């Protein structure tokens, strides 16, 4: 039996991380979850207007990767809230650094709330 890890493209940690959250929408969803949004309707109402099919796809991927968990909060009809796991919470410093970089180099970008940027 081979004990070597299997990688999709390579063993590079940047490549493997980007394979999980390097698309146009995933970090926006993670930002919103860190900012307190929990339900599908909360997430779909973000100013970036993520298409509903993309949102559903990203939530499934994040759940499959163990970055979020899906918990039923209503049973008839079934409704879920999405919560960050520890693995998802550990992405906050990445989001903070991206925000700092954007504020420094992208003119006119809005400043995140102070609580979001605390280390």
TrEMBL record:
Ranges where the HTH hxlR-type domain occurs: 12-110
Chain segments annotated as transmembrane: none
Key words, A-Z: DNA-binding, Transcription, Transcription regulation
Gene Ontology terms, MF aspect: DNA binding
Record keyword Transcription present: yes
Alphabetical list of SUPFAM superfamilies matching this protein: Winged helix' DNA-binding domain (SSF46785)
Pfam family, one: HxlR
InterPro entries: HTH_HxlR, WH-like_DNA-bd_sf, WH_DNA-bd_sf
Protein name in UniProt: Transcriptional regulator
């Amino acid at each position: 039996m081979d004990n070597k890890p299997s990688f999709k493209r390579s063993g590079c940690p940047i490549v493997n991380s980007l394979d999980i959250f390097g698309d146009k929408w995933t970090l926006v969803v993670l930002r919103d979850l860190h900012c307190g949004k929990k339900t599908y309707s909360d997430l779909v109402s973000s100013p970036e207007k993520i298409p509903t099919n993309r949102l559903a796809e990203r939530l499934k991927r994040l759940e499959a990767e163990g970055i979020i968990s899906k918990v039923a909060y209503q049973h008839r009809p079934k409704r879920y809230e999405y919560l960050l796991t520890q693995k998802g919470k550990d992405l906050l410093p990445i989001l903070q650094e991206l925000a700092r970089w954007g504020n420094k180099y992208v003119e006119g970008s809005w400043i995140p709330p102070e609580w979001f940027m605390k280390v």
